[in-house]
Design a protein that fits this description.
Length: 423
């Protein structure tokens, strides 16, 4: 440990002893009052130690105060809008994601106790806590950011904190086009599919931009329709007059009071929705979602984790069987083929870019196999000098089956999106 870090740790421990937070009634103190009290004691300690005024002392004061009554180094990381994810692997190892790329930052907490105190203050605003009886917690911060904490003995290298920041600037379809996340034809088709009330599933891995695209698609829903959104942690931000937002609730300290995604999907069916938007299907709620799509709630949207459209269909089968309804696999596949119309596959590339790599249509079943056809795909063409992935978006030469239900004028206009001679 270098001398500066040793001094900071010593100051941190001495300030904690001075404040004696366990005996100080901090519940009646505002944040500013608590900070003023801590700052007063800290300056007394520094004066007693003969620390001269200057830049070094000022920086030391700021860092120690942040850890004792604030969020430590997290304050600067959370304020940096270029950072999209923060990963803390113990007090000494902090990584961030910028523009889709991970990098280690030269910041650290003075010790495990300091990190534990910062996490405790971070979770206070969420009404959640983490301890030996509840060693894992997943919560949403006031600004919408998601925080996940796991502690020993489950985490072998100390307390692990992962924060997925909620961007202040809401991305729309225009921003996705500017970032070359999809083509103009893809965007036009997705708008057509939403307006034609096709049921759409956005598929992809973690951090590929599924929720961002789901938010963009939801924005395309007509203003006169009633939307019910259901999420585990609220991330969707829709500008819609007739909007109902529901969020699942975990168990309380006594192990009671849990309200699952599945419970909310069932309840949403009684709320007269025109569209149901589920943030993510990851369990038995997939079956309830499929049944909703098959019982008059056309145009519903959701996301799921999968590496390809075909893998998504397999995952939907598994998640539907998790509902415990003891349904034959044939019946489940028929439900999926009837309910899911469009699968949008997202991917994140090593360069950090996120793109729609394919758009596929579910066309029905043949025997025991669900049939699909690709409508659009992204074809890689190598990497540029700076490491970014090059490629082109192409139409696959197939026209969606649902165009047949449109009027001749609408069908003729939509068919131009799939004319490969214009590509």
């Amino acid at each position: 440990m270098d001398p500066v870090e040793a001094r900071a740790r010593s100051l941190h421990e001495e300030l904690i002893r001075r404040l004696d937070l366990r005996r100080t009634d901090i519940r009646r103190m505002s944040d500013s009052q608590l900070r003023q009290l801590a700052e007063h004691h800290l300056r007394e300690i520094l004066d007693q130690r003969g620390e001269d005024a200057g830049t070094t002392r000022s920086d030391m004061e700021r860092s120690v105060l942040q850890e004792v009554v604030g969020l430590g180094v997290l304050e600067d990381l959370l304020a940096d809008e270029a950072i999209t994810e923060i990963m803390i692997n113990g007090p000494d190892n902090i990584f961030v994601e910028r523009a889709g790329r991970l990098s280690r930052v030269p910041l650290r907490f003075t010790g495990a106790r300091a990190l534990s105190g910062v996490v405790e203050r971070l979770l206070q605003t969420t009404g959640r806590h983490v301890d030996e009886s509840s060693p894992m917690v997943d919560a949403r911060l006031v600004d919408g950011s998601r925080v996940n904490v796991i502690i020993p003995p489950l985490a072998l290298n100390g307390m692990i904190v992962t924060i997925r920041k909620f961007g202040r600037h809401r991305l729309g379809m225009r921003e996705l086009l500017e970032a070359e996340a999809l083509s103009v034809e893809m965007a036009a088709f997705l708008k057509l599919a939403v307006q034609a009330r096709r049921n759409i599933v956005v598929s992809g891995g973690t951090g590929t931009g599924k929720t961002t695209l789901l938010n963009c698609l939801s924005e395309l829903i007509a203003p006169e329709e009633r939307i019910v959104t259901i999420e585990d942690s609220a991330e969707l931000r829709l500008r819609h007059d007739n909007l109902v937002s529901l969020e699942a609730r975990p168990r309380n300290i006594e192990g009671r009071g849990m309200v699952s995604i599945r419970d909310l999907v069932r309840n949403a069916l009684r709320m007269r929705p025109d569209r149901i938007v589920v943030g993510e299907c990851r369990g038995g709620e997939a079956l309830d979602m499929l049944q909703a799509m098959n019982t008059g709630h056309d145009g519903s949207l959701t996301t799921a984790h999968a590496n390809s459209p075909r893998d998504l269909l397999s995952r939907l089968e598994v998640m539907s069987l998790m509902a415990g309804m003891d349904l034959p696999l044939t019946a489940v596949r028929e439900q999926i083929a009837s309910a899911v119309n469009i699968v949008v596959q997202q991917a994140r590339f090593p360069c950090g870019s996120r793109r729609v790599v394919s758009i596929s249509e579910v066309t029905g079943t043949e025997g025991s196999r669900i049939q699909m056809q690709d409508l659009f795909r992204f074809e890689r063409a190598g990497a540029q000098i700076n490491g970014s992935i090059r490629g082109v978006f192409r139409q696959c030469g197939n026209q969606p089956v649902f165009l047949e239900s449109m009027s001749p004028t609408e069908r003729s206009a939509a068919a131009k999106l799939f004319d490969t001679t214009l590509a």
